[in-house]
Amino acid sequence: MKKIIIIVTPIVIAVFLIVTTGILFSSYNNECYTIKKDGIGKQCIIITNWWDERVYITTPTQNIACDVICEYQKTTEQENLKSESIEFSQGQIKLDDLFLDVQIADNDLKRMRGLMFQEQLPFDKGMLFVFDKPDLYSIWMPNMKFYLDIIWFDNAGNVVHIQKNIMPCQTALEIQTCPIISPNIDSRYILEVTSGFVDKFNITKDSKFSWVLPDTLYVP
Question: CB burial class (10 A; 0-12, 13-18, 19+) of residue 97?
Fold first, then answer.
């Protein structure tokens, strides 16, 4: 009987933590939730608009509760993004000798949405992420439906990094473990295109893009 109690108690505690934290998340607007690793171990960070808790994971019970809450948070944010109507500005760029029609993601909401939930693009179309200034910018692939080639450009339109054939993250498990692609070099523009584009059109570190339309916006 004692063995049964030892097994059941952590499960009960985990369920309690999951349910109570779920109530908190449904009642308040949470700003951020993440799980990260540092030099000590796995850290569970829960931040709402009124509550900031940082708990180091030391038991399986805490780990289960933290992972479930994380999945709840990610799912909620993704459903909100999917239901929200976002209109992207349209533009055209020239990459080497190739003309591309691009959707322009030039604010936080558009950049967060990206190509989520969209069908695979033909090779003459893409999405261009535009930032206010050069910096280190990362990309990840939750709720994507197709593989991507991604190209990072500097302020002058020169290629600084290329990543090919990046896998989409669609299932709950894939989204929870979805890798973040983080080039260790400053960029100002990021172009997402269908996988195979880079090889098909021989895009290299010597390639360069320029604006065709709108030709008066996003100047250095």
Answer: exposed
Cβ contacts of 16 within 8 Å, gap of 6 or more: none
H/E stretch holding 100 reads strand 98-105
Distance in angstroms (rounded) separating the CA atoms of residues 35 and 56: 10
Pairing of strands 98-105, 52-56: unpaired
**The pTM is what?**
0.64
Given strand 125-135, what is the order of strands in its sheet? 159-166, 148-153, 187-194, 125-135, 98-105, 89-95, 209-213
User: What domains, with CATH codes, occur in the chain?
Assistant: 2-83 (no CATH), 89-213 (2.60.120.1140)
Low-confidence ranges of the chain (pLDDT < 70): 1-84, 215-220
∠ CA 98-100-104, rounded to 5°: 145
| pLDDT of 30 | 36
